[in-house]
Design a protein that fits this description.
315 residues, Rossmann fold, 4-stranded antiparallel β-sheet, 10 helices, elongated, membrane, nucleotide-binding, ABC_transporter-like_CS, cell membrane, ATP binding
Length: 315
């Protein structure tokens, strides 16, 4: 049996002269968390709308492989939970009433619905606010209630479109905690964002979109392999590096670049990997340098995006 839950093949979508999606292909495995990255306007929300059947594509194919035998395309929406970028709540209904309404749209009722509502509120840490209205909630709490609404029907695939925009740190952590629980339950997730650090925490596969095209489709580890420098050694010295010492550091195995502040006391060595840091530290000590500070750091996905596109993710 195939482990593929969602297949997107050569999808194109135009809005007048603008091509929002240009031959986009990707797949989501069962139990996988796929991070969908790209700057604002890259096509992420258009792709999400296409997957959910909210817009009609011009070309290509989108298929969801159900675990339920005999399911038809018309049933696809009950296998998908969508957390939209724009809040979809009734401000003057309580959290309970909002979820009762959304549950009813999925054909849920009675004791089963109430059990699911309680479970969903507990998942997003809002069980103690069940009788309160979203009009009294913070922006982050509203986002969490949106996630609860998307999970009521127990979908196989949960799609979250920029779920942390305008969210306070407490709600951001609560959202991440909830998603970690869903991952542990074997749910498939698509998480769209232009915040690399969020996707680094959650995703085990990454798709980067720019100008409506897929420019990377691989695991985080494979993406890092595209960087000439995958790690750094940041340091501060009591005295400046001499020119011959700079040259010696640059000639050492695994050193890709040396970035120095104007004082030549503070800088960063760009390394192929962290294993080369020790030899560099050893050399500095042998040269009589007093290390006031040093720390190793891994390359970030932001650097991968910059390498692939020539611009920052948030440009």
């Amino acid at each position: 049996m195939s482990s593929v839950l969602l297949e997107v093949q050569d999808v194109c979508k135009r809005y007048g002269e603008r091509e929002a999606l240009s031959g986009v292909s990707l797949s989501v495995q069962k139990g996988q968390t796929l991070g969908l990255l790209g700057p604002n306007g890259a096509g992420k929300s258009t792709l999400v709308s296409a997957i959910c059947g909210l817009i009609r594509i011009d070309r290509g194919n989108i298929a969801l492989h159900y675990s339920e035998a005999g399911a038809k395309n018309a049933d696809s929406k009950k296998y998908i939970g969508l957390v939209p970028q724009d809040l979809a709540l009734f401000e003057d209904l309580s959290a309970n009433e909002n979820l009762s309404l959304f549950g009813g749209l999925y054909g849920l009722s009675g004791k089963d619905l109430q059990t699911r509502i309680q479970s969903a509120l507990e998942l997003v840490s809002l069980a103690d606010r069940a009788k309160d209205k979203p009009s009294d909630f913070s922006g982050g709490m509203k986002r969490r209630l949106n996630i609860a609404a998307a999970m009521l029907h127990d979908p196989e695939l949960l799609i979250l479109d920029e779920p942390t925009v305008g969210v306070d740190p407490q709600s951001r952590n609560a959202i991440f905690d909830a998603l970690e629980v869903l991952k542990a339950r074997g749910k498939s997730l698509i998480y769209t964002s232009h915040y690399m650090e969020e996707v680094e925490r959650l995703a085990d596969h990454l798709v980067i979109i720019d100008h409506g095209k897929v420019i990377a489709n691989s695991s985080p580890a494979e993406l890092y392999q595209r960087l000439p420098a995958q790690a750094a050694l940041n340091f501060e010295l009591a005295q400046a590096l001499a020119p011959e010492q700079k040259n010696a550091l640059l000639a050492m195995p695994g050193v890709m670049a040396l970035e120095l502040a104007s004082s030549a006391c503070t800088g960063a060595l760009r390394l192929q990997d962290q294993d080369h840091a020790f030899a560099c530290l050893q050399y500095l000590q042998q040269q009589g340098h007093q290390l006031l500070y040093f720390a190793t750091a891994k390359a970030k996905l932001e650097e991968v995006f910059l390498t692939l596109t020539g611009r920052s993710l948030r440009d």
